Amino acid sequence: MAMEGLWLFSVALSAAGAIGFICIILVLRWVLYFRKGLAWDGGAAEFNWHPVLIVTGFIFLQGIAIIVYRLPWTWQCSKKMMKFIHAALNLVAFIFAVISMVAVFDFHNAANIPNMYSLHSWLGLTAVILYCLQLVLGVGIYLIPATPVSWRAAFMPLHVYSGLLLFTSVIAVALMGITEKLIFALDNPKYKDSPPEAILVNALGVLLVLFGALILWIATRASWKRPKDQILHTLHSNGGGEDNIKVDSASSQLSDGADAEACADVRKRTTKFDD
Amino acid sequence: MAMEGLWLFSVALSAAGAIGFICIILVLRWVLYFRKGLAWDGGAAEFNWHPVLIVTGFIFLQGIAIIVYRLPWTWQCSKKMMKFIHAALNLVAFIFAVISMVAVFDFHNAANIPNMYSLHSWLGLTAVILYCLQLVLGVGIYLIPATPVSWRAAFMPLHVYSGLLLFTSVIAVALMGITEKLIFALDNPKYKDSPPEAILVNALGVLLVLFGALILWIATRASWKRPKDQILHTLHSNGGGEDNIKVDSASSQLSDGADAEACADVRKRTTKFDD
């Protein structure tokens, strides 16, 4: 199945991937070169896991999870497999977010800094809790076979809206976190003196916004959506007894060689609706 | 023309209006009660115009500008009139944003604080510049009659995406600004001691996010979009010489009494395409 505007999609996807990758490099550069590196010791090096895990997990992986249905070379894979990949990426992102919060609480407690006083912490904790809720509802509604198809369809607009809103909010909360950390950590030279560390981390913030903007663009283009499994569905609803032959033919047509084994369960799709 | 889900729309719109209104009250309470009030003297009271103008103009008015086409009681008004209202609200929001930036530069310069060193300032200035570009392109493409209809249609997805992204970014930048200001301004008790001012302004930040979330929800529901002027358009494309009679009948059908005068130019719509 060909994608409309494939060239532009490839540019947007490559840019998102490259910028996301640079963000990870920059956050590692920040904590490893300018700060005290990474450790799990209750000190500043434990705190440093917070930005690293947020950028790699809660932003980069969540972004990839959002657009995983858009990748045209996955369109021959079953929708069910893609749902599992989407859920798994979001689950890993959630685990990264939880560990990153534990790192901050440990650091605060060891240094006698109060927890949960800042707007960053209020919105960040809310985002993690709502993300967990989104994950639980998403699995319950889209991965548990017993859930009625009508529920799945009715919940989809809210699932998509909440997902994009949470992703955007997480980036906004990260920008607040960057602001806080640069003000608190930089001293002689201070943040306002624009030392190299401040420039590097400001650039990280700008790139996080660009990454978010690209993911949102890719996710909201109607013409880049995974097509409904029209070919298979049409074949299925056309005939009764000849299903097997037709399905096999459609399946090999879709699989197109290389990925045929990996996506073998495409055959099963014809017997039920995908959402 | 009836709106699908009018009850839910009314709830979302009322909530957005109420929350936006509370945000304006809170930002005024912040600067008038906890800070040094409002003045144009190069000091802290001049800085205070910054949050006040951003919340009232760049966030509240911009939010209203975004959803102005969604208000069902405007659907009988001409699209052209609504475009002017949309542009005017955005223009006022832009002017508020520019004045609010002047206030900060004046304050920084008088107090010998460097300008443009923080991520807040980088992203904020970028947002204002791109907002200006969006305004100029929007007027050029949708309000200047000479622009070809095909250009208008081709640019629309980018216009909508940029508009929503800029609105979201402005809120994110405001949250960073709140974070900065509370850290810099609160001293004995500090931000981390959670004095009443910190709680009030954190609450303002949470409400700004809720306001943004409601505006984005309202703006992205397909069923709440202003209907294409189907009735009039259908009538127009059906016949040739009988246009005037048909148009008048459709017009009075749409105007529905009260707003007939205000929206009299609805009649003109049938002679050209609206975008």
Automatic annotation (TrEMBL), chains A, B:
Q: Specify the protein name.
A: Plasma membrane ascorbate-dependent reductase CYBRD1
A cellular component annotation (GO) from this entry: apical plasma membrane
The yes or no answer to whether the keyword Cell membrane is present is yes
The annotated topology with respect to the bilayer is:
Multi-pass membrane protein
Q: How does it assemble?
A: Homodimer.
Indicate the enzyme's highest-level EC class: translocase
Which residues belong to the signal peptide in this entry?
none
In terms of InterPro entries, this protein maps to: CYB561/CYBRD1-like, Cyt_b561/ferric_Rdtase_TM
Molecular function via GO: metal ion binding; transmembrane ascorbate ferrireductase activity
Name the Enzyme Commission number(s) assigned to this protein: 7.2.1.3
Q: Which cofactor does it need?
A: heme b
Report the subcellular localization.
Apical cell membrane
Q: Which UniProt keywords apply?
A: Cell membrane, Electron transport, Heme, Iron, Membrane, Metal-binding, Oxidoreductase, Translocase, Transmembrane, Transmembrane helix, Transport
Mostly located where?
Answer: membrane
| Reaction(s) the record says it catalyses | Cu(2+)(out) + L-ascorbate(in) = Cu(+)(out) + monodehydro-L-ascorbate radical(in) + H(+); Fe(3+)(out) + L-ascorbate(in) = monodehydro-L-ascorbate radical(in) + Fe(2+)(out) + H(+); monodehydro-L-ascorbate radical(out) + L-ascorbate(in) = monodehydro-L-ascorbate radical(in) + L-ascorbate(out)
Where does the Cytochrome b561 domain lie?
15-220
Among the Pfam families in the record, one is Cytochrom_B561
* Residue ranges of the TM segments: 7-32, 52-72, 84-105, 125-146, 158-178, 198-219
